Amino acid sequence: MKRVLFLAFAISTLTCQGQEIKADYPQLTDNNPTTYYTGTPGKNKLTFQVSYSTPVLSYKIYSSGETPAHDPANWVLKGSNDGKKWTVVDEQKDQKFCSRFQEILCVVKKPAIYKEYMLEASTSGKENVIIADVILSDKNMKAGWENFKYPKVVFESLNPDTGGSKIYHDLVQNPDEYVKYHTQKVAEILYYTAGDPMVDVQEIDYTLKDYNGVSAKGGSSPNINIVYSTQHIEKSAKESLYKLDFETRGVLYHELTHGYQFEPKGIGNYGNNKTFWACIEGIADAVRAEAGLFDMSTRKPGGNWMDGYRTTGFFLQWLTTKDPDAIRKFHITVRDLDVWSFDKAIKAVFGQESSIEGMWNEYQEFLKKQ
Ligand SMILES: [Zn+2]
């Protein structure tokens, strides 16, 4: 949600990235998918006033946690400079959200400079429309990723009668699309564009299974498999469907990273070398953290970069405060350095005068001030 600009309406006034904006429906523009605009059956007109002259190039609409019948299915985005004459800039029909709290990203077909935008949205049937968030952007949020090659996804629920499996389907209506969406999001964090040389993932078998655990990835690219525990789903859903969504996406980011990440060279393997293991699990949790799917208040001083998982992952994600591309650059060292080490990786990204110890100590100082 960087690059979020304008978004406007008339009741409350708030400041967004330096732009003063006004909102009639702040629940639509608060980046919080658990607060909704609840409208009427039929056409709903939502206006957004922009206070500066940049064309909207793309936008995202988020489904709510309510049932899919309340999702917007058809919409028109219009622009105006006087609030009277409206010009259609984009139109979408028969849209289906693959899950709850899910975005649909559209590139504006006829961008031009307007002071005000209006979204006219309706459901596919007689239900009232409910929308979680709307984000208008003056960037093309699809840029560089139009040609991403999605893997084939084979979804299976081994224990469809379990509570966890049933709740999963309340959350996810189209599991194949849901997994595919996240493959691209993972690749966007690890790589710069869809054209980058990338680990080739051709098929993902995604299975819900009744067992005492969380999730695991097996196989190796091009064919990987991921299991997700229905018991864990049930536990995560106790608080709310949104909590389940947060957890399910977070776990998926982690496991899918294992499909798309490079593996360090010259230091053995996952099972027999701790540096290899810490690198693999650290990057997977760094990607999850970068996606915003960890409770970052759990970050605490202590530990070591070799501890793996979130101790390493939070550290790697924190490096993006020094360089926004730090995760991508760090990941490229995994492909290029032979023999790979944390210290050589830090030096490759931040210069020969830097070191893993120095960087880690700086991170610890940052954590102590939190
Ligand atoms: Zn892992």
Mean pLDDT across residues: 93
Task: Please report the total strand number as a whole number.
Answer: 15
What is the overall number of helices? 9
| First-to-last CA distance | 23 Å
- Residue share in helix: 25-40%
Tally of domains: 3
Name the shape in a single word: globular
The run of helices and strands is: EEEEEEEEEEEEHHEEEHHHHHHH
Ligand species: zinc ion
Largest sheet: 4 strands, antiparallel
Quote the CATH topology of the largest domain: Jelly Rolls
Sheet/helix structural class: alpha+beta
Strand arrangement, major sheet: 4-9-6-7
The name of the CATH superfamily of the largest domain reads: Galactose-binding domain-like
Radius of gyration: 22 Å
Poorly predicted runs of 5 or more residues: 1-22
* Beta-strand share of residues: 15-25%
Task: Explain the overall architecture.
- It is built from 9 helices and 15 strands.
- A hairpin with a 2-residue loop joins strand 1 and strand 2.
- The N terminus is likely disordered.
- The chain folds into 3 domains: 126 residues, Sandwich (Jelly Rolls); 109 residues, no CATH class; 95 residues, no CATH class.
- The longest helix has 20 residues.
- Helix 2 packs across helix 4.
- With 370 residues, the chain is an alpha+beta fold.
- Helix content is 31%, strand content 22%.
- The strands form 5 sheets. It has a 4-stranded antiparallel beta sheet, with no helix packed on it.
- The structure holds zinc ion.
- Zinc ion (ZN) binds next to helix 4 and helix 5.
